[in-house]
Design goal:
The complex is a heterodimer of chains A (111) and B (114). Chain A has 111 residues and is an all-beta fold. Chain A has no helices and 11 strands. In chain B, the strands form 2 sheets. In chain B, strands 2, 4, 5, 6, 9, 10 and 11 form a 7-stranded mixed beta sheet that branches. In chain B, strand 7 and strand 8 form a beta hairpin. The model of chain B has no long low-confidence stretch (mean pLDDT 91). Classes of the chains: A mainly beta (111), B mainly beta (114). The interface between A and B is medium-sized, with 23 and 27 residues.
Chain lengths: 111, 114
Amino acid sequence: EDKVVQSPLSLVVHEGDTVTLNCSYEVTNFRSLLWYKQEKKAPTFLFMLTSSGIEKKSGRLSSILDKKELFSILNITATQTGDSAIYLCAALIQGAQKLVFGQGTRLTINP
Amino acid sequence: DSGVTQTPKHLITATGQRVTLRCSPRSGDLSVYWYQQSLDQGLQFLIQYYNGEERAKGNILERFSAQQFPDLHSELNLSSLELGDSALYFCASSVEGTSGYEQYFGPGTRLTVT
C-alpha cells in the first residue's frame, strides 16, 4: 500500500528560528513529491520535486528530494508567525496521477 | 486564490440524503481531482477525471459518484449519506501537460451530516 509519513506531527518554535520538516514515502510508480501549505482551508502549492538532489527555493522556504533514500525535507528559515500552518507533503503517482498525502506537520510559530 | 472554484462552501444535511458538490477547474486545466479530508483520515484521493473521462479511482465509496462535463466542470454526488461522510471535500485541477502536474486546490466544501 502506498504510504507517505511526515515528521514531526507537531512543532512549536519561536519567531526567527529555522525549522526542518521531514517527509518519507513508500509508493509504487513514484513520479514527484509535492509540498503544500494549509492554513484555514485549501492547501496551497509550494513545491514540486521530481529530480534527486536539486534544491528548490522560494524566499525563506527550500526543499530537496532524495530518491535513493525516499525522503524529502522542507526548510523554513527566519520563521514568521505567518508561517504557522499545516504543511502537507504528497507523492504523485505516475499513471494514476493521484496524490498520496502524509498526515501533515502542524507548525506553530510563537512571537 | 488558486483559480479553482467550488460550491457550495458549506452544506448541512441529514443522514440518508443526497447532495451534489460542484467544481470549476482553473482556466485551461483539463484534469479534475476530488479529495476528502476528515480529521482521522487526513486528505484522501477519491477520483480523477481528465477531459471528461474517468482516469483514476481512489478510496471512493460506491455511494459516491462523479462526472466531468464538456465545459470541464465537475460534480461529486454523495448519496445515502452517513454521519461519517462529514468532511471537507476538495477539488483540485491540473494542466496535465509535460510540465503541468502540480495540482491546485479549490477552497473546499464543508459537508456536515446530522
